[in-house]
């Protein structure tokens, strides 16, 4: 999509700023349903993921969750008008936080915030930035206009330290944490087999970068789950207590544990997980492709 059309799309999103949440949600239902029926490749990926992760569900149940996922993705996009333009006081009400005390540590250890790919991810990330400056691993968007807009939202209150995903610099992440910056880390996408290990995700081997366990060990960091949940009137960022007995001496076991922690939240809000991503794109040697 050209930069011109992306700017028009951003302007249309921004125009919903003063709409009620109900009006934005109703618009998102229409757009989400349109995408569900027209963007067939992403619908196929979504249903494949749901069949792999929830074989006990009926096909009707999987299609219902998949369709709601598309609606929730659309709503999250339109809700970016609030993230981009609303004043601080409104955002504090729009994106609430539970467990804010878990950002603090009496021992002053470095902090890793594990932020799985739920539809409210950007709302949670912005809310974290309202409390403190953080480092995050960032993948540049293909469209420059969209890239600039997303970065401007993330930098509204505390400009984050961006560490490029391409050619990831482990030392830069460690330095940032030792300098007192929490690392807001998105661990649950398939970036290929080169730097990943295969650990179960809902019983299926998933290529997973074992960075959380390695960074926690090297930096002596505590790990806190940061899940952004979409609600009827906004979002809630859930900050959980730091994981006990983490990391262990076994990187494989630690990475599998991380996936189990994510699974608990996926089971709680399944239609808010980003099923449109090819989570099982990489396969163990000899295993057939899934998509």
Notes on the protein architecture:
This protein has 291 residues and is α/β, with parallel strands linked by helices. It is built from 11 helices and 9 strands. The chain has helices spanning 3-14, 21-38, 40-53, 59-78, 80-85, 88-94, 121-131, 144-154, 170-178, 211-219, 251-268; strands at 95-98, 111-114, 135-138, 161-164, 183-185, 197-201, 204-208, 222-231, 234-239. The strands form 2 sheets. A 7-stranded mixed β-sheet has the order 1-9-8-2-5-3-4, with helices on both faces. Helix 3 (40-53) crosses helix 4 and helix 10 crosses helix 11 (251-268).
What percent of residues are in strands?
A: 15-25%
- Report the order of strands and helices: HHHHHHEEHEHEHEEEHEEH
What gap, in angstroms, lies between the N and C termini? 25 Å
How many DSSP-defined strands? 9
In short, what is this structure?
The chain has 291 residues and is α/β, with parallel strands linked by helices. It is built from eleven helices and nine strands.
Q: Which descriptors would you attach to this protein?
A:
291 residues, 46% helix, alpha/beta, 11 helices, 7-stranded mixed sheet, two-stranded antiparallel sheet
């Amino acid at each position: 999509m050209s930069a011109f059309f992306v700017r028009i799309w951003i302007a249309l999103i921004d125009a919903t700023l003063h709409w009620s949440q109900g009006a934005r949600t109703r618009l998102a239902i229409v757009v989400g349903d349109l995408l569900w029926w027209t963007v067939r490749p992403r619908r196929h990926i979504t249903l494949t993921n749901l069949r792999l992760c929830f074989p006990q569900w009926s096909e009707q149940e999987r299609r219902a969750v998949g369709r709601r996922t598309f609606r929730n993705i659309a709503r999250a996009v339109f809700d970016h008008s609030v993230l981009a333009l609303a004043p601080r006081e409104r955002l504090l009400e729009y994106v609430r936080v539970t467990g804010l005390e878990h950002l603090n540590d009496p021992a002053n250890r470095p902090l890793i915030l594990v932020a799985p790919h739920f539809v409210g991810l950007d709302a949670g990330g912005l809310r974290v930035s309202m409390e403190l400056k953080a480092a995050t691993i960032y993948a540049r968007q293909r469209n420059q206009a969209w890239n600039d807009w997303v970065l401007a939202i993330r930098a509204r209150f505390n400009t984050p330290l961006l560490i490029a995903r391409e050619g990831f610099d482990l030392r830069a992440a460690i330095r940032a944490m030792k300098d007192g910056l929490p690392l807001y880390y998105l661990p649950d996408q398939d970036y290929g087999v080169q730097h990943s290990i295969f650990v179960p995700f809902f019983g299926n081997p998933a290529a997973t970068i074992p960075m959380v366990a390695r960074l926690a060990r090297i930096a002596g960091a505590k790990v806190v789950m940061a899940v952004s949940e979409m609600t009827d009137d906004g979002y809630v960022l859930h900050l959980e207590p730091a994981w006990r007995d983490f990391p262990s001496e076994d990187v494989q076991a630690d990475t599998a544990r991380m996936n189990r922690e994510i699974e608990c939240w996926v089971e709680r809000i399944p239609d808010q997980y980003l099923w449109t991503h090819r989570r099982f794109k990489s396969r163990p040697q000899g295993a057939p492709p899934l998509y």
